[in-house]
Design a protein that fits this description.
3-stranded mixed β-sheet, 28% helix, alpha/beta, two-stranded antiparallel ribbon, 152 residues
Length: 152
């Protein structure tokens, strides 16, 4: 929680405007001792600022306007990470074209976190160390061993 809140503060220092959220959420009942954050939306940040270049892993999203596919691909592919990406559009031809050019392990189109465990999941670049799910997981989680025995 402290790490994610520090990124919200960093975003402000980098010129970002918090549109909503950005604070610890208080939850009552049996969950009152947990660590919760309000879902947070931030605008007015450069694509290459730390807030947009590092993995926050919290309920934080930044929004940025763009004019062309080339520009938004530059934004999306500029980070050293590449776990997942999401495209929202009514133009499925454009979505498929963009999906081929995004440097991420999975591209969701008009959905998010929809997974079939029979298919591989994992990132590229500095995200992940292989694939889980599907036949790729068999290779990743298998450690081959050669045992050689000479009998007399």
């Amino acid at each position: 929680m402290e790490k994610i809140l520090s990124y919200v503060e960093l975003a402000k220092q980098e010129g970002g405007k918090v549109l909503c959220g950005g604070k610890q959420a208080t939850v009552g009942g049996e969950f009152e001792n947990g660590y919760y954050l309000e879902p947070t939306i931030i605008e007015n940040l450069s694509y290459d600022c730390r807030t947009n270049q590092e993995e926050i892993f919290g309920p934080v999203v930044t929004i940025m306007p763009f004019d062309t596919e080339e520009e938004v691909l530059k934004f999306a592919n500029s980070t050293q990470y590449g776990l997942a990406s999401v495209l929202w559009t009514q133009d499925i031809t454009r979505a498929n074209r963009m999906a081929m050019d995004l440097h991420t392990g999975i591209v969701w189109i008009n959905c998010w976190l929809l997974r079939d465990l029979r298919t591989p999941f994992g990132g590229v670049k500095s995200s992940g160390v292989g694939r889980e799910g599907g036949f790729e997981a068999l290779d990743f989680f298998t450690e081959p061993k050669n045992v050689c025995v000479k009998l007399k």
